[in-house]
Design a protein that fits this description.
By secondary structure, this protein is an alpha+beta fold. It folds into two domains: 3-51 and 270-401, no CATH class; 60-229, no CATH class. Helices cover 55% and strands 17% of the residues. The chain contains 13 helices and ten strands. A six-stranded mixed barrel has the order 2-3-8-5-7-6. The protein is elongated.
Length: 402
């Protein structure tokens, strides 16, 4: 039998048994769609991880007050860094600038009848250079604001949306824990913070105002961000900062640090460890789904062999060889698998687009279609070969009498 003849017979058999065809295509479609969505989610998660690492900065070192293994920013209530600490860190070879700041988390913010909570940071003017983030509109916190203990603020875009909607907030006054602050600018959009929080739900005010008027912490500093000249020297500089702080805090060799130092290396490990378990689970589901589709295909094709014994016996009786029978059933399996793969890839793309519109981090690329082709071919061949061989092994005389 020629290939075209085998293909024609296979197509006829597929359309003749519509329910069987539908079940096989549906099973494979679900498996391939699952793989497609998981690939998009995994790539989206990796992209988000890189964004969070970039938001931290490859040349930055964060110094937190308070020891232990707690994650996230240290607040003004935990502050134990001193002005001498900051000055000594600035004098370390390789450090280009140090920006100290006070931190308060989830402070109540009010404008008119609108209410929200936000991170509030007391900063100096060099915070803009340390974070490479200034005001996208209006003005930023200046040295004069710190000298005068001004009650002004620059607010993040999430806070703008929560409090003002589409209105212009510049020049308006908001209440931060019952203290009135004038909005002078809007922060550049940044996305997710390295610790996973919304870095656009942030309000910055002058460092002195935060320390003396809002957070009642005039003596100590909650956090600082050091920028090094050479990113490859981050690990070495971080070790020097640790030595300086331990000496300044008069700590014995057996004492644990009463501060925390975070570098890009720790941030990368922390973020990737939190996402690794989820990714492993997703890929486990993704691998199982096509296998289930393949098992469904094999079982239904075995049923088809039993139902079509007379047809197989007749073909063998009129001269069809075993290889022709194998090719016919493999062709049916491959056609059904490819149909399921195509529908699965399309369904997966549709689901992925819906997830993207709902705010989930996804990346849509050409790989799902390649994956659909590969998985369809693998499923069709691997799970179709046994039914095909079983069909070819039937004795023509016995098949015709059954």
């Amino acid at each position: 039998m020629k290939i075209t003849r085998i293909a024609g017979v296979s197509v006829s058999a597929i359309f003749k048994h519509k329910v069987r065809t539908f079940l096989i295509v549906l099973a494979i479609m679900v498996g391939v769609a699952t793989i497609t969505v998981i690939m998009a989610l995994t790539r989206g998660a990796n992209k988000k991880i890189m964004q969070r690492i970039n938001n931290f900065g490859p040349d930055a070192i964060m110094i937190h007050s308070g020891g232990g293994k707690l994650e996230g920013p240290a607040t003004a209530s935990e502050a134990n860094l001193t002005k001498k600490d900051i000055a000594d860190i600035e004098n370390i070879d390789g450090v280009t600038l140090v920006s100290p700041f006070q931190v308060a988390l989830d402070m109540p913010i009010k404008y008119g009848n609108k209410f929200t909570t936000s991170w509030v940071w007391g900063i100096k003017s060099n915070w803009k250079d340390a974070w490479k983030r200034g005001a996208t509109k209006g003005e930023f916190i200046s040295d004069a604001d710190n000298e005068q203990l001004s009650k002004v603020c620059v607010i993040g875009q999430t806070a703008v949306k929560d409090l003002f909607g589409t209105s212009d907030p510049i020049g308006e006054s908001i209440l931060i824990e019952n203290t009135s602050f004038k909005v002078i600018g809007i922060l550049e959009k940044r996305g997710q913070a390295p610790v996973g929080a919304d870095f656009d739900n942030l309000i910055v005010i002058p460092f002195t105002t935060a320390s003396r008027r809002l957070m009642n912490q005039p003596l100590y500093i909650a956090m600082a961000r050091a920028i090094v000249i050479n990113p490859s020297a981050v690990k070495k500089v971080a070790a020097q900062i640790r030595d300086v702080l331990r000496a300044n805090h008069n700590m014995a060799d057996t004492e644990e640090d009463d501060f925390r130092i975070t570098s890009p290396v720790e941030i990368t490990k922390m973020i990737k460890s939190t996402s690794r378990t989820l990714n492993n689970f997703l890929w486990l589901v993704g691998i199982i789904s096509p296998l289930v589709g393949g098992i469904v295909l094999m079982n239904i094709m075995l049923m088809a062999v039993s139902e079509r014994k007379k047809e197989i016996g007749l073909r063998r009786a009129v001269g069809a060889k075993k290889k022709h029978i194998i090719f016919q059933f493999l062709a049916e399996s491959l056609m059904l698998a490819f149909a399921g793969g195509i529908f699965g890839a399309v369904t997966g793309i549709v689901v992925t687009v819906m997830l993207a519109h709902s705010g989930k981090p996804v990346v849509i690329t050409w790989q799902p279609f390649a994956a659909a082709f590969i998985f369809s071919a693998a499923i069709g061949l691997f799970f179709g070969i046994y039914p095909a061989k079983k069909a070819a092994a039937l004795d023509p005389a016995n098949a015709l009498t059954q």
